[in-house]
Design a protein that fits this description.
Length: 357
């Protein structure tokens, strides 16, 4: 027994020594507590040069992690296993995170560059007064298509996706709200519809689409469409911009029945450790020059009106990605449907994916 106690004591002392050495090493490299900022963002959603510049200007080491869905992001933040100082959820997720007390309120006085945001993108329904969030990017959901693979046809409606000529020729983003949403829109229902009869009707119609669906994929949808692996893809507008930059044959349209107008905003999770660093980073990204460079790199639409003026005309004047206020007023923002209904949407989407198999 005495030998066992001595062994445990020795292991404990070694472990403490290693922890102390690691702490000293991190401190000497400037990576200790207040000198580190952990950012949780969508994949391929920031110009990496801007992260390097922020580190150099602020002296703060950035730890950058990514997620592929709002639901995955919310689950990880709620579980609290990893501390994040800044995250970039979408509008309905922000509303849900507010309800679940997962966010810290934003002190606008610490964000002087917030003045550059277009008023159209402030004080929206998911976060009145921008009490908990700061605009980052916005856009639409629509259809990328390759005219050469469609015999010159131009899709204008969600219902065009059901054309038998598109058999095994459509790629879909792996998102429940997006897919169930366009199913509802194709029937002229709201993409926030909670009427069970309407949802089941949309599900049956989506099931009928399966012969045309080649795959339901994540970020690889951009490469697949650019490489002409499919004629049509349902994507977010920023992905469409990137795809089209890789293959100029492709085009993008928002269907006439309507679609989603989405917003991704920066927030500070309640468990954040480097709050001052979070404000420094957000204000850095709100700088018009930085916001313009980020928009040009990522391909999504900037809500920063001063940044928009700095972008090349072929970007800022492209109405496919910077649609008029008249069009955006016809589009819908995702509502927070509540935990039960959101789970139901996810179940319907899973059933749709299972139906394909």
């Amino acid at each position: 027994m005495r030998q066992l106690v001595q062994l445990f004591a020795a292991v404990f002392i070694v472990a403490l020594g290693l922890m102390y050495a690691t702490s000293l090493l991190n401190s000497s490299q400037g990576y200790s507590g207040g000198n580190t900022l952990t950012i949780y963002n969508w994949g391929d959603y920031i110009d990496p040069d801007l992260l390097a510049e922020f580190e150099e200007e602020s002296g703060i080491k950035v730890i950058y992690q990514t997620f592929d869905s709002n639901e995955a992001m919310m689950t990880k933040i709620e579980q609290g296993g990893t501390t994040f100082d800044v995250s970039v959820p979408s509008e309905y997720a922000i509303s849900k995170m507010k309800e679940e007390n997962l966010l810290l309120p934003i002190d606008h006085g610490k964000l002087p560059n917030l003045k550059h945001i277009d008023e159209r993108f402030m004080n929206l329904s998911f976060d009145p007064g921008n009490e908990y969030s700061v605009p980052y990017f916005w856009g639409t959901v629509g259809i990328v298509y390759n005219p050469d693979l469609l015999d010159g046809k131009t899709p204008t409606s969600w219902n065009d996706l059901w054309d038998p000529s598109l058999r095994n020729n459509i790629l879909l983003v792996d998102g429940a709200r997006e897919v169930i949403g366009f199913g509802l829109n194709s029937l002229h229902y709201s993409l926030n519809d909670t009427n069970e009869a309407h949802l089941q009707e949309a599900k049956r119609k989506l099931d009928a689409l399966t012969p045309n669906v080649k795959a339901i994929v994540g970020d690889e949808i951009k490469m697949l469409l650019a490489n002409e692996e499919a004629a049509v893809g349902v994507v977010w507008s920023g992905d469409a911009s990137e795809i089209m930059s890789e293959n100029e044959k492709l085009d993008y349209v928002v269907p006439e029945e309507g679609s989603n107008l989405w917003f991704d905003n920066m927030v500070i999770p309640k468990t954040a450790r480097n709050i001052e660093g979070a404000y420094a980073f957000m204000n850095f990204m709100l700088d018009p020059e930085h916001a313009a460079r980020n928009a040009e790199y990522v391909g999504y639409s900037t809500p920063n009106k001063e940044a928009l003026a700095l972008l090349p005309e072929d970007i800022s004047g492209d109405t496919r990605f910077y649609p008029s206020p008249e069009l955006t007023e016809k589009l819908e923002v995702y509502d927070n449907l509540g935990k039960k209904m959101l789970s139901h949407y996810n179940e319907l989407f899973l059933e749709f994916k299972m139906h394909r198999k």
